[in-house]
Each structure stands twice: as C-alpha cells, then as structure tokens.
Design brief:
By secondary structure, the protein is α+β, with helices and mostly antiparallel strands. Helix content is 33%, strand content 29%. The longest helix has 17 residues. The protein binds adenosine-5'-triphosphate. Adenosine-5'-triphosphate binds next to helix 1 and helix 2.
Amino acid sequence: MEAVTKKAYGKVNLFLSVGGKRSDGRHDVETVLCRVGVYDTVTVRRGSAGEIKLTCDDSALPVNEENIAYLAAMRYFEHVGACHGVDIDIKKRIPVKAGMGGGSSDAAAVLLALDELYGELSFDTLLEIAASLGADVPFFLYEKDIMLGKGTGAELFECGELGFEGYGVFVSHGEKLSTGKAYERLDNIRGNANQLKKADNLLLAIAEKDLFGVAGAIENDFELCYESFEEIADALYGLGCSKAFLCGSGPTVCGLFDSLEGAERACVMLRYKTFVAKLGI
Ligand code: ATP
C-alpha cells in the first residue's frame, strides 16, 4: 500500500463539566464527545526516508511541526525509531479555532493512516502518542460516534451508540479564547470551588434514543466565558432548535434540530456564518 486517505471528522461535546484546578494546574473534566459529519480529508503517502512533508489547502495553517498533524507523524516515527518518510495532504473543511477539534482529528487521522501503512505500533502506543499531542486526540483514534471522557478528557470510556437522529446548525462568531485562556476565564468567573458534574442523565437519554431528553441534559460550562453566547442561543431557539450549546471551549455555537429540513431552514434565516452537520456519521 502506498497511500491511505482518511476522513477526519469534527466533534462537539454534548456534555462538558469542568471541576476545580488540580495541584498540577490542570482541570478534571467530565465530557461526552460526539463526532459530527463535517470532515477534513487527510491523505498520507509513503515519502522519502527521513522527510515529513505536509501540504494543506488552508494557507493560514502552518505546514511544519507547528501543525499538529505533522507533529503526530514526528512522534510516530520517534516511537518507531526510524523516520520512513511521509507526505501528508490535508483538505481542510472543519472550521479552524472553532472548538470542533479539527487539528486533533487531523492528528489522529495521521496516526491511523501511518498505522495502516506501517503497522509497527500497538493501539496502546498510538493512544499514548495521541494523549501527548492533546486531550481530544485519543477520542478520534477510537473512530466512534460517542465516548465518555474523564480526567483531562483523554481517559475514554465506551458509552453505547448514538441511536437518535440529530442535526446541528453551527454558528461561527467572535474570537476563540485559547483553551488555556478559557479555563482561566472560567476560574475567574466561578472561583475555584467547582463541583465536577456527572453526565449520567445525558448517557441515559442517549441509551434510550430520546432526543428530547438528550436536549435537556446537554450542558457546557464554557458557555459562561462568551458574552455573545446567549444572543446566538436565543436566535437559534427562535428558529425552533431544541438546545443551543457551545462546541468545546468555543466559540462556535451549535443549535440542535431533529430534522435536516428544520436545520437548513434555520441556517438560511440566521445572519451569522453557519453550516449544517449531522451528529454522528
Ligand atoms: P479544540 O476543539 O481541540 O480546542 P479547535 O477547533 O478550537 O480545537 P483547531 O482548529 O483544532 O482548534 O486548532 C486551532 C489552532 O491550532 C490554530 O492556532 C491552528 O493554527 C493550530 N493548528 C495546528 N495544526 C492544525 C490543523 N491541522 N488544523 C487546524 N488547526 C491547526
């Protein structure tokens, strides 16, 4: 095999509770990650020994080790103990700095593709590399629609299938706070005595394929960090969404609809930059 092409899907967090700051300065979270049907196309080809090359159709993104997909290949070869060489091409469709995990998903796609090309590392080692790249990368390695995350978010547990049909209207607005800044702002707003909440109600509603219950149990603590969240959420509710929530650490807001038609109708009515994607793939 000379090349592998992967669809690197985006994600939303249907639940994201942030606990207090730990002694190591990080935060414990309880989160439910859910793949969404918008994807980057990542093609990984065998290259010249010793060389990692990256091309990307988004010229604003770095094509060196500052790109997390490039870094993923570097780490893979470090673990193998030899750089076999690889050419990576990314067709970027997941909005950048949106809170939809695009970079993390690209990095996982590179690890999975290298594994298909060379097959020299165990899944556990790939997971270890993924966790060293970022808290969201391990999720994408599992290629599952939905998983429960604990610890910093990288400790993952299976939580069944996504049995309901839901469509997100994704609204882009404002500037992203880096994930670090978002945690800092949250600590400033809430103090440091935060109770970590459990995703049990959401998981139950998902198991019962109850979209109404899912909508009622979705929550994301980072919503507090964005002043414009309420305004966008109100606009989405006005157009009939069952729940408006923030994607990851923001700034994208997702409005949940039970039909593609309803979601597309809402998109046309909104004065923001929007797109529609299915929850799950
Ligand atoms: P998350 O939800 O994991 O916080 P995000 O969607 O908010 O992610 P990304 O788009 O994944 O953010 O990454 C944003 C930053 O990472 C940008 O500064 C960008 O330059 C850098 N970056 C590095 N590699 C990539 C990549 N392959 N795709 C997107 N951004 C990348």
